Amino acid sequence: MDRFVTFTGVVCPLDRSNVDTDAIIPKQFLKSIKRTGFGPNLFDAWRYLDHGEPGMDNSRRPVNPEFVLNDPRYAGASILLARENFGCGSSREHAPWALADYGFKVIVAPSYADIFYNNSFKNGLLPIVLNAATVDALFDQAQGSEALTLTVDLDAQQIRGGDGGPIGFDIDPFRKHCLLEGLDDIGLTLQHVDDIRAYEAKRRVEAPWLFK
Amino acid sequence: MKAKTLYDKLWDAHVVREEADGTTLLYIDRHLVHEVTSPQAFEGLRLAGRPLWRRGANLATADHNVPTTDRSRGIADPVSKVQVDTLDQNCAEFDIVEFGMNDPRQGIVHVVGPEQGATLPGMTVVCGDSHTSTHGAVGALAHGIGTSEVEHVLATQCLIQKKSKAMLVVVDGTVGPGVTAKDIVLAIIGRIGTAGGTGYAIEFSGEAIRDLSIEGRMTVCNMAIEAGARAGFVAVDAKTIDYVRGRPFAPGPEHWDRAVAHWQTLHSDDGAEFDRVVVIPAAEIRPQVTWGTSPEMVVAVDGAVPDPAAESDPVKADGMRRALDYMGLHAGTPITEIRPDKVFIGSCTNSRIEDLRAAAAVAKGRKVAAGIRQALVVPGSGPVKAQAEREGLDRIFIDAGFEWREPGCSMCLAMNADRLEAGERCASTSNRNFEGRQGQGGRTHLVSPAMAAAAAVTGHFVDVRDL
């Protein structure tokens, strides 16, 4: 995984609550056996006017001009501003893969579904939680005639560039460390091979039926 | 000693190591694998040159992409075929037990696991699928994971986790006749909301939950994730132990008594403390029907489509208006006036034998109504299908005009050929009514199996108790 570095990007405001993983990446695109290439089908049913299927040339499909991702103001956006319970529904990691493949590096929302939140970190995508009033204020700015550009500094746990001055955010120190260093979870866990072996040895005695 | 919740007991028994900040390496007893969320994980193992940690902890089956019609000619959709073939190849390469598409034990992973005794009380169970919470019905700690974590479990048999908060949902008293596990869990979600359980593990308890069969408890735990909770579970009781006894992967006579003695400790202690307690009087629960595009958008069958204008929260009101627009419904319409085009009985929520019995009891001697274009019954597994056929349920469905299919996820998420067309309305026993879930533009109403069958034979939603 790449290290997460401080960056500045355009904010795309997606003004809906309970955005589910079926909306983020519809099921017909889950048939891929790769981790990449999902970006063109991110929010497929909202983004295009026709029915999307794998293998289509997405550059030739009719786009929905009403959908925020197609608004020229937000071209090249790398920060997604969202409402509560973002990413609810399935455990499909295709959802953060599609967001990252499109070019999003950060999501800002009042709350997330647990599995989506966890999956995001595994893919270098930073989901930031801010209180509802702060999110409301960012929506007002991002939906103005000029696109809102923000700087996200994970090390300092700060978002800068909004009207109200720097915004601090909380993050679990372990997750922060892994993102900043681009650490591989499996590599970290395999440093504890002896602990896992010792646990298994104990369990084989206590609960042998689990090791049939 | 401090009184422990069931969640504390399940968690504590699986801690391999814990850091000062609470980050825990948690041991996983059972890993269930299906074709959609595993290919990239196996690929990751190969790229890193990592071996599988413990072969016997894994069990695989193909469910999401498999056709529910005649399988003798394989899978017609080439993209679906690649995914199912890839699972076969990965299981062969890593020597994992797999119930492939033509195995008589094949089925929906969350039906297969408990049915085979592969998910047991006291286990930690994970799968790259959010409905893994189902397995909590036998007193296991079970939750869905993403593909990176699938790879992590394959490589280490562990997950890096932080403990959730503990919620107790008490369904107090007994439900009336005709009110099922599905109605109970939809009523719970309607009460606490689709994010009400976020950050929590939910223990379901109370007389109405204890009264349920293990299959019924699976229906409730299955939808814990629709309330936002990754894991939902029920304490072990005599029903749990009777359910597990004699199943192929269950402990044999050499370990049975010791296993039972351990399982009997799997309940919350008297005086155990929960971070949140929700009490729902069972007697108030009536058969439920969802009207919108989130499982929390639910009312009793004798209710009406709600009015967004009556909602004080503007974000919520906006979501309701969007849902009504998508669903093609108007505020104030009685639920019993809504007419489905299709009916789907199946999914990891409601495709077990008692679900099929409940639907067949309604279908028996009746006919699918003229306005219903298709009524599908998709058993959850090969053994469920065989059992239903022994009981003659297949004949009842076929005689009534339902289609009797092969096991799989089917129209719950329409990754195979079973789907809704744009604008079609479905009475479905599945778990999600999200936009496009059953096919782009499709409109889903979540109900119990009996309520789905009742809608099929009358052509509109109806209180099954009035039939």
Describe this entry's structure for a reader.
The complex is a heterodimer of chains A (212) and B (467). With 212 residues, chain A is α/β, with parallel strands linked by helices. Chain A has a single domain, classed as Aconitase, domain 4, CATH 3.20.19.10. Helix content of chain A is 30%, strand content 13%. Chain A has helices at 21-24, 44-47, 94-102, 114-121, 132-142, 173-181, 185-189, 193-206; strands at residues 7-13, 79-81, 106-109, 126-129, 149-153, 158-160, 167-168. The model of chain A has no long low-confidence stretch (mean pLDDT 96). In chain B, the strands form five sheets. A five-stranded parallel sheet of chain B has the order 5-4-3-6-7, with helices on both faces. In chain B, strand 3, helix 2 and strand 4 (58-61) form a beta-alpha-beta unit. In chain B, helix 6 (181-192) packs parallel to helix 8 and helix 12 runs parallel beside helix 15 (449-458). Chains A and B meet through helix 4, helix 7 and helix 8 of A and helix 2, helix 3, helix 5, helix 10 and helix 11 of B.
Q: Which labels suit this protein?
A:
heterodimer, A: 212 residues, alpha/beta, Aconitase, domain 4, 30% helix, 13% strand, B: 467 residues, 5-stranded parallel beta sheet, 15 helices, 19 strands
Question: What is this structure's SSE topology?
Answer:
The complex is a heterodimer of chains A (212) and B (467).
Chain A: E1 7-13, H1 21-24, H2 44-47, E2 79-81, H3 94-102, E3 106-109, H4 114-121, E4 126-129, H5 132-142, E5 149-153, E6 158-160, E7 167-168, H6 173-181, H7 185-189, H8 193-206
Chain B: H1 6-12, E1 15-18, E2 24-27, E3 30-33, H2 39-48, E4 58-61, H3 78-94, E5 97-99, H4 109-115, E6 124-127, E7 141-144, H5 147-156, E8 158-161, E9 165-172, H6 181-192, E10 200-205, H7 207-210, H8 214-222, E11 231-233, H9 238-244, H10 253-263, E12 276-281, E13 288-290, E14 298-300, H11 314-327, E15 342-345, H12 353-363, E16 374-377, H13 382-390, H14 393-400, E17 403-404, E18 425-428, E19 443-446, H15 449-458
Parallel strand pairs in B: 3-4, 3-6, 4-5, 6-7, 9-10, 9-12, 10-11, 15-16, 15-18, 16-17, 18-19
Antiparallel strand pairs in B: 1-2, 2-8, 13-14
